[in-house]
Amino acid sequence: MHQTVDSLGEKHQRQEYAVRCLKDAINADSGSGQSLYFLGRCYASLGKVHDAFISYRNSVDKTEANADTWCSIGVLYQQQSQPMDALQAYICSVQLDKSHSAAWTNLGILYENCSQPQDALKCYLNAARVKGSLSSSLSERIKFLQTQLASAPSVSSQTSKLPCIEDAWNIPISQEMASRHKGEDDAAKRPRLDLQMPPHELHTMQVLQNQSSLTPQDQSYLKQLQHKFIQIQNQSKREDQQPCLPNGTSNSLPDTKPTLSESDLESLLNSRHMSAASLAEDIIAEFGLTSNRDLFDNRHSSQVTANNNVNTAGPERNVKSSPVSMEMTANEILEIVKGIGKTGRIDSNILHDDCRPPEPPSAPYPPVSEDKLLPATPSVLLENKKEAFSPALQEFCLKSPIAVVRGLANVLRLDLGLFSTKSLVEANPEHLIEVRTQLKQPSDENWDPEKRNQVWRCESHRSHTTVSRYAQYQASSFQDSLREEQDKALGINHQSDSDSNSSVPSKGKKTKKSGVFETVKFGTNLDLSDEKKWKTQLQELMKLPAFARVVSAGNMLSHVGHMILGMNTVQLYMKVPGCRTPGHQENNNYCSVNINIGPGDCEWFGVSDEYWGVIYNLCSKNNINYLHGSWWPILKDLYAHSVPVYRFIQRPGDMVWVNAGTVHWVQAVGWCNNIAWNVGPLTARQYQLALERYEWNKLEKFKSIVPVLHMSWNLARNIKVSDQELFTKIK
Ligand SMILES: O=C(O)CCC(=O)C(=O)O
Ligand SMILES: [Fe+2]
To answer: 370-493+511-726 in CATH: which number?
Structure first.
């Protein structure tokens, strides 16, 4: 009532009240499909598409056979520019209730939008047959189409965007659903509630992201779009985890502009008269069906048939042995792979063509000459904001194994103070942080704890503390060192190895001796993913150019559909001098973006991707697992194997770009914090390296935290790939 009756007060308040009442109703009776349906209607009229979909979906789960729900789902799909899904939903609706004039009318509008007037007319006529539903606009529309069609040649079905109404009723929905569904439960019989960002919004988001300066209005619109994008991605991930139907063809269809609003639908629904028995007979006659039972059972019976096909497909059919080729269309491939995956085996190696398992590459040949073993690190000093947003900067980063972009924070006016230890403590003092206890030593050395030999194994013991406790440690370590400096200047003698009396996270001491070495504590992997806890910090990072941003349409990791902590979310590192990030390649070989917050510097070492096999072998020789272990390369071993090493200092405000596959290790020179995350530029190289590592991780029993297969499907759905090589690889 509050949703629909104007006299009950101001619209917004009424709507909010209606939502509250419905939520109460659902709490009181969680099995009520109707309350969930009404809640969905409220959300839809409030423009909360995402919430509306979820409510409708839950409603369908409780009460599947509800024509109203399917009709409303169709409306949402139509608004989301997913005409094929909208069609399926409307067909579900009119199959459940053939006198559902609203669904027939919507279907007519949908067909009209897709330039299929004959089908539209049939639907309008069906709507008009329902007693009491013939509004003047409906009869006008019918007359208009009849006149038009009488004078115009009929449209060939070859060029139709949607299947004609007869086909839609009979075959595609049931069979398409049945042959492509993942599970056998009831959910598999329904169209998938697939949320997609409308293409124009995706495009606008991309355009806005690439602007160097935005008006406050544009900024807030961009934020809205990005928020929506993430929500949709998350929702689509949740959908994927349920046994429901894949979306199929909707993305390949051109946009349609929905013309039916929720309120139009509302009035149609309100004026609707249920159950016109004669209508079913008319439809049977019109569509040439044989019996009433066919109408009702078609979906389910053909589903059984399709399932049977699946079961007889044979246990060992292998996609790779089927004649699938890159030249085929999606439909041809679907035809060939029908039934595979259910009982058949799909070769799980997703690497290209030859299916050989990946292996660490042998050393590049011929080896580089000695004078190339210490290459200069590609670096650029930015002078202004325009340079930061120039495509040239992105190109520069993408062509180097590692690059340092100096002065980025300065030209973007990034407020690095938001990531200072003080701000972190103010924002979330009790937030957990991982601690690594390590031996403090010069950056180009790595001794065993007794300082007998230089080794590859890097001592790094894990524990946990809170931000505020680590902050105390970091601050007192700094003050102690300052005092020592002052005392030194004053000629006061200090025992250089004496313990400090300040507090340490776990032991109550700042530093202590472990054998001959002082130990340091590295506060690592502080998770900044929570948008509420770290709102200002995360907002600040929106100032970055799109290619380096945490979330952007051009970042593969933004298409995964869920958070991967530290990869498509921000992590922060809190350091004192000597803290080490041991050698590694990024997860699944993605690129890494790292900004030094200061006040101190960091020292970086980097080795280009093609040498990772050499480093892998050196780790093995030193009895360390390359993926699972902690190692700090001995430089002379690398040089002895002709491995060039980039080495450079990252100052506060500098961004380091670690390209796909680059092996790197980092040591703090001073007291500083760093922020970092991963990005996946849409390049063939990045995609290939991610795939290779995905496969190699399997062999090494190392978990790939990027679901590369799932991500590939999302990429295929979400983006238009202009790079031919990347397109082919994804395909
Ligand atoms: O700042 C650090 O120590 C982390 C460096 C790193 O491995 C990265 O940003 O990828
Ligand atoms: Fe890294």
So the answer is: 2.60.120.650
